[in-house]
Design goal:
Protein name: CCR4-NOT transcription complex subunit 11
Order of helices and strands: HHHHHHHHHHHHHHHHHHHHH
Strand content: under 5%
Helix content: 55-70%
Radius of gyration: 23 Å
Distance between the termini: 52 Å
Organism: Schizosaccharomyces cryophilus (strain OY26 / ATCC MYA-4695 / CBS 11777 / NBRC 106824 / NRRL Y48691)
Shape: elongated
Number of helices: 21
Number of strands: 0
Structural class: mainly alpha
């Protein structure tokens, strides 16, 4: 997303380069959204600090509390494990990034690479002391831009941590041993689930299965609904396959009414039908592999082959030619 040479350019130079482009207010906002989305899908520290800096740079001339991305800055500052990123955000939240004394301007005169490599925990703690945390938190809560304090518990912590970095084995073990009971207010968004999978693929199937086995019905319904809306990627599909192949009780719960498979078919068909040629080939291959594998589960096979036969046919038509083997297998099963 960024030129490679930006990693070694100073923040001031990056800002000046970006400033050469003329954007209207709506385009600026869309650019900031894209930067935030990019930051949500990368774990490279240098790219993270460039993205956060540019989001601030776009709105540098308005008061901090009027910045539409203040909640992003505050939440990320509170939960990131990247010291360079936390230090940059602390400068933004304290307002010191705009001050002119020599020791403060230095953050803009160094490069993102230098910031990431040189920032220490002591640097972060020192800069954090200049942030009026209570004032910012109260402001964001008044604007309903922060979760209610009641929901800031161990349940939501796993999403906050697991979408910032890979969980440690010890953190996963502790979570599974505690078997928390999630409620409706703890449901992660589709984007959070996808980011969690991206960072925690080895643990995601077990964690998700555990959630569905121990949480409230309202949580389970919404969580399963969000699973049907996942993008067709190798990692997302791998998690779904592992959940369905290795937990018989989960298969019964997730597919019992047929709704899960129906919505998954609809989502896959829609994604493939509305993609460009390159993406269509990729998603058709991944989606077809998924349905071929889950046909080995008798309960799911009955739903797909009989209850959702025409819906599966529609998927096969959208996924041609990658779906040819799936369609042939479907015909054989129907004829026996």
């Amino acid at each position: 997303m960024f030129p490679v040479e930006w990693k070694a350019k100073s923040f001031l130079e990056i800002g000046l380069y970006y400033q050469k482009k003329e954007f209207d207010l709506n385009t600026q906002f869309q650019n900031a959204l894209q930067l935030m989305d990019f930051a949500d899908h990368t774990d490279e520290p240098v790219l993270l600090v460039i993205a956060d800096y540019l989001i601030w740079f776009i709105y540098q001339n308005i008061p901090l509390k009027e910045n539409p991305f203040l909640a992003h800055f505050f939440h990320t500052w509170a939960h990131t494990s990247c010291l360079g990123r936390q230090y940059l955000l602390a400068n933004i939240l304290s307002g010191r990034i705009q001050q002119t004394s020599s020791d403060l301007v230095s953050i803009l005169t160094i490069s993102p690479l230098e910031l990431v490599c040189s920032t220490t925990k002591e640097d972060v703690l020192a800069e954090n002391s200049f942030i009026d945390q209570n004032d910012l938190r109260q402001w964001l809560e008044q604007q309903e831009l922060l979760p209610e304090k009641a929901s800031s518990n161990s349940n939501t912590t796993i999403w906050l941590t697991g979408t910032e970095r890979a969980l440690t084995t010890e953190e996963v073990r502790s979570f599974l041993e505690n078997q928390p009971r999630f409620s409706e207010k703890d449901v992660p968004t589709v984007k959070q689930i996808e980011t969690f999978i991206l960072l925690n693929l080895p643990f995601a199937p077990e964690i998700f299965s555990d959630l569905l086995n121990h949480s409230e019905a309202n949580f389970n319904q919404r969580f399963v609904k969000n699973l049907t809306s996942l993008s067709i990627t190798v990692s997302n599909i791998e998690v779904l396959i592992l959940m369905l192949l290795h937990d018989p009780s989960l298969v019964s719960y997730m597919t019992g009414s047929g709704t899960f498979m129906y919505e998954l078919l609809s989502s896959f068909t829609s994604q493939i039908s509305n993609s460009n040629l390159f993406e269509k080939d990729r998603m058709a291959h991944i989606g077809t592999s998924f349905f071929i594998k889950v046909l080995d589960v008798p309960f799911i096979k009955n739903i797909l082959v009989y209850d959702l036969y025409f819906d599966l046919q529609s998927f096969c038509m959208a996924a041609v030619p990658q779906s040819a083997i799936l369609y042939q297998k479907l015909k054989v099963i129907r004829s026996t």
